[in-house]
Amino acid sequence: MFLAVRPAGAPLAVHCGPMGNLSGRVILITGAARRVGAAIARRLHGAGAQVAVHYRSAAGEAEALVAELNALRADSAAAFAADLARTALLPGLVAAVAARFGRLDALVNNASSFFPTPLGSIDEAAWDDLVGSNFKAPLFLSQAAAPHLAAAGGAIVNITDIHAERPLAGYPLYCAAKGALLALTRALAIELAPVRVNAVSPGAILWPEDGQFLGVEQAAIVGHTLLKRAGGPEDIAAAVHFLLAEAPYVTGQILNVDGGRTAHLSA
């Protein structure tokens, strides 16, 4: 086992085996009350991090998650409400997290809207929602967090989508917004270095809860993966954990977590 000692001001990353140590690190996770965001919060908390659980409207689930984490380790989690569409409020969210925990070491931009926008039906409300959650909010949150991350030798992980590079029919605006986030990941890696900026790009992980994909459609998608199965939220959480804790020489990269779907998917 190799142990790397992190000098003061060095990028956030400690290698210490399969469960990279994040003890003492403070991590803000957007959209963390449920689904993939909650899995990320649990995983990073389990590695020793103090977690800031952001939510917009899922107050009950956010508070329940925070109570669960604090029961495991006292005063190690807190919930923060914010509408990420209100850009002017985002510096305040970052400031509140830093004030509560005394520092900020990492930002995970997970919050996302996802719905179809066939060409001819796109309006400004859809633009504001999809571009706002998937691109604009991560940009302005990263900008607000940058001074804290620089001081801590921190890192950013964005959650993109394999369809950022291989668009999904009927979802042009969502795919374009995630494509912008993918490009932003690489741009911020340049702008913020030595703060590391990477992305995790999920494939079939959790199906939408509003019935956008039926059973036959789900089977077709899974059939295009090399592993012939869907993934789970923990697969994304493990990838985020790796990039934050065990990848000190990785920045500006996109890690596909898709069961091999993009290895042979052309559209």
Written overview of the protein:
This protein has a single domain, classed as 3-Layer(aba) Sandwich (Rossmann fold). 41% of the residues lie in helices and 13% in strands. It is built from seven helices and seven strands, in the order E-H-E-H-E-H-E-H-E-H-E-H-H-E. Strand 5, helix 5 (172-192) and strand 6 form a beta-alpha-beta unit. It is globular.
TL;DR?
The chain is an alpha/beta fold and 267 residues long. The protein contains seven helices and seven strands; from the N terminus they run βαβαβαβαβαβααβ.
Task: Outline the secondary-structure elements.
Layout: E1 26-29, H1 35-46, E2 50-55, H2 59-72, E3 77-81, H3 90-101, E4 106-109, H4 124-152, E5 155-159, H5 172-192, E6 196-202, H6 215-223, H7 233-245, E7 254-257
Parallel strand pairs: 1-2, 1-4, 2-3, 4-5, 5-6, 6-7
